[in-house]
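Lab notebook, bench 4. The sequencing result for the construct came back, and we need a structural model before the next group meeting so we can plan mutations. Quick request posted to the team channel:

Model the 3D structure of this chain.
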Amino acid sequence: MAIPSQPSVYVAFGPFKVDKASCELFKSGVRVRLNGQPFRILLLLLEHPGEVVTREQLREQIWGSETFVDFEHSLNVAINKLRRALRDSPGKPRYIETEPGRGYRFIASIQAPDSDAGPAPSSLVEKSEAAVPAEEPQAIRPERRPRWILVGASLGIVAIVGCAFLLRPAPALTAKDTIVVADFRNATGDPVFDGTLRQGLTIELEQSPFITLISEERMRKVLSLMGRPVDSRLTPELASEICERTGSAAVLEGSIARLGTQYVLGLSAKNCRTGDTLDNQQAQAARKEDVLGALTEMAAKFRKRAGESLATISRHSTPLSEATTPSLEALKAFSNGSSVLIAHGHVAASPWFKRATEIDPEFATAYAWLGRTYSAAGEHAAAAECSRRAWQLRNRASDPERFYIDFSYHRFVTGNLEKAMRVCELWAQAYPRDPFPHGFLASSAATALGKFEKAEDESNKSIALSPDRAMAYANLANAYRFQNRFTEAERAIERAMDRKLALPDFQISRFYSAFLKNDATEMERIAALSQDDPELQDLICDQQGLVLAYHGRLRQARTMSRRAVDLARQSENPESAAQHEAGAAVREALFGSRAQAHEYALAALKTSNGRDAVYGAAIALALSNGDSMAEALADDLEKRYPEDTLVRFNYLPTLRAILAASHRDFSKGIELLETAAPYELGWQGCCSVGFVPSLYPIYVRGLVYQAAHRDREAAAEFQKVLDHRGIVVTDPIGALSRLQLARAHASSGNRERAKAGYEDFLALWREADSDIPILQEAKAEYAKLL
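Done. Here's the predicted structure in token form:
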């Protein structure tokens, strides 16, 4: 028989026809959906009709020698899809016969490759037709393959390679896609792997600037909408549903099983809408201790196949044992802590992170998260110690965690906010789709430095990247309020609540909004809603005390302050209790109640030596003629916090200016306060748990100018306080600046403006306690103007 000069790109059998050029399968002229690995298997079988194509050949030619897959499962799935497309039965095969333990054989008669519908070569067809009826073809086992088949085989190999190129997703994902990671199926019987491998894979993939995982906040919200507990185990089925609901591109499913003394890990990536397999891998670990290493290799291979560049994989690929811990038990404790944090908050998660550090004392990431839980609970000394330890071990962390560790170190240990901001900016550059650096820039860094427009911008970036991250909306509301954009602040919280998000900070923000609108009913309603929330009880109670003090109702304010302190102690939060006492001490000193100021200040110092509590006590003592003790506290702050931005550029200049003015050294006081000028409009409550001394450098500068009879300059400072109501909010200096402005006008001879100022203040304090020293002074001064 002559060899065809140009073999056909078609292969036909039964009612089917394969187009090798377009990589399509047709049945009676109608296209049958078959692509990917099943189609390539069909091509390979057609090039070896009647012969067994072994499983090893299929693995080599379809999956490739460099691909590590859960091969048995993947091949079985592909063969089943192929049989469904051909309407074939493994029990009574017409087209594909299984050779147990070996591979598969194509058993139907095929037509000549140079004809679309003609008969197959006689040497093949006659044997087939003589043996059985046409509708039940038997296996074809030619003794000698005609030469045209060799030519056709060559073309077929090219077709397989071509189809492999056409059908393989390259890249499988885009930079905008998101992924859901399911819990691993654990067939080992060892609970140490439960949750641990998912946590490890998550940490590995979060090192990638290209891959984005669905955030835990988003996962929690979807689970809630589904009526599931937020700490539900993410089975492959549940993860797939979450994947579809969130519009994600793929779900990652993992497995681990025992094979003798070894462990076999599988990893599969599937399109959650179509079910198509995007990646399939298999790896083995000789010992339990090697499992994390195998997981690291699988994560790196997935990143490559997902479309990430080799350059970023190489640059951001710390092995899991180095990025976290070589101890599965420690990683298990860390994983439990992460799950508890999502479902029950920081306080409940803290023991698990602590346990992780006890199992592995060099587990840097566990120290970082433990520090985070301590900070959220107001235990700043413990947060600083954990953050310091994490920083010492930062080489044992992944790149994203290293950024967080560096940020935490500067935020909680050194207090250097400029360095903290720089870390977050570099973090955002390296991981442009990570919302965390934008969130930190919007809260603890930019706002404390008075960079409110930047805080607004960073909050919006964080929301765009992760719209279900509740804290981002609280940060945005704060940024608006600090700029006196009160309606926009309220809308930011409404946006969050429309998304069914909840956060204690929302209630604080709503309380501030009600206060700024002078809505006493709404403030009472929010306070009632917060009575049973341990994270809010003492804070809202303290705010109620501040509102009472703002209106001069000092006796009631003292009762409320005492209650706030008691609630904080009941919640085992001594730092909050100390800050409430320090804030009360400052209030008493500002109102002229020196004895009470000393009492509260000493109580605060007895409870805590934390930075903010000490500063509040020192301010109260300095304003109440406790100079020597205040000076000692100032020296202590300078010694303990040499690099702290707030201490250097806010607390110490303010405190020492008060002391200088008490010794009538007004020039020195003004000179000291020049140091505070760059950051004096910052909001100091980003990490406070009770005392928020915002704008104190401005108020004290006004007092010093006033004492030096520089009335016009004093008036400008007090007006500055009044112009920034969104920053001052409930702090008593907001009320007292009205009186101090009236005094400045009176001293400068502006009788009418002074009279109006006194009347404004006295109207605000119309229900004030009559025995408050500063109120008695104000009434006497006003009477002289009449």
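The radius of gyration is 36 Å.
Will bring this to the meeting.
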